[in-house]
Amino acid sequence: MTLPKKHLFDLPSGVIYLDGNSLGPLPKGVAEKVQGVVTEEWGQALIRGWNACGWMEQPARVGDKVARLIGAPRGSVVMGDTLSIKVFQALSAALAMRPDRKVILSDTGNFPTDLYMAEGLIRLKDAGFELHTVDPEAVSQAINDEVAAVLLTEVDYRTGRKHDMAAITRQAQEAGAIMIWDLAHSAGALEVDLEGSGCEFAVGCTYKYLNGGPGAPAFIYVRPDLTTQAEPALSGWLGHDAPFAFETSYVPAPSIERMRVGTPPVLQMSALEEALRIWDDIEMAEVRAASIALSELFIREVEARCPQLSLVSPRDAAIRGSQVSFAFEHGYAAMQALIERGVIGDFRAPNVMRFGFTPLYLEASDVMSAVEHLAAVIGDRLWDNPAYRTANRVT
Ligand SMILES: *Cc1c(COP(=O)(O)O)cnc(C)c1O
Question: Which of 35, 54, 340, 395 has CA atoms 20 to 30 A from the CA of 157?
């Protein structure tokens, strides 16, 4: 196969999309697929759809597809809910595995919802648990025998800095802690070897690099030998061993399906299942190599043409994910000006302009045009316009 595979996406004309790290674009075929699920499956099969159309198996079936992309075995991943919920599930199961420890370790580069969910769980448990957040570079030194669980996002959403998954997992486990990886900015962006890392839990979302659409279901991985030890905190009926026995008391399924909660979002899950077809003949190594090439080109050109911007992401591609961030004092206004010119990236407070590189639908010529526009916005001070200063609700 060859990249890019632009023809597989419905991208608006005149747009260079550098925000697939936040919301992936619409793959061709998804609209038609969802239309069919609505009119034929839901419309015609009605309640029979749960059996006749395979809706009930969908969370595990789609989970197997995601598993292949993150180096996990079949039967170890299930889909559902949103990533915030999956973080809660993984963390509560992890804490239950280390009853004599009270510390959850994370880093200040983690996405806020992961930290907020940990705080909520701590309040709920009301048993002296503490969340320690340290600088990303200080995680290794902070792992000790008081830590119950290490909760980290592999790739930093702001800077793109990438943790060494294998090394940190080994260290956490040597200290007796449980390792949870959040793969929000990894799945579909780079090679992940979950099985090889040996981590106990992993979670992630599918609306970023996997192009599942806004609100697409999240995933959770449990290391297969631990499946029956992972206690489901959210003990919903579809995680029950026999949901349709309608027993009055909860017994978790002996499989990864215990991490299901309630009725799956069939329309959204169908959009994702269709979107994942693109990956059937794609090797992640190839995506990673192409993403590095695009990112290196972008960094080189921006540094040569926009000296006002300073690189926030690691310079070494080996420790950088699939995004490149630059700091610029007027970053918000500059990004608005850029978006008006059809180059869509995004902005993260306080001053970070963020650009995602997704080789499925981007090539070197797109990067060169994007830099051309960016150089005009910065060099000609096009950002200096009152219209670009009012912040939207979603940045
Ligand atoms: C995008 C992202 C989320 C989003 O969580 P949702 O519940 O899907 O809104 C959570 N964690 C990380 C690390 C993310 O990058």
Answer: 340
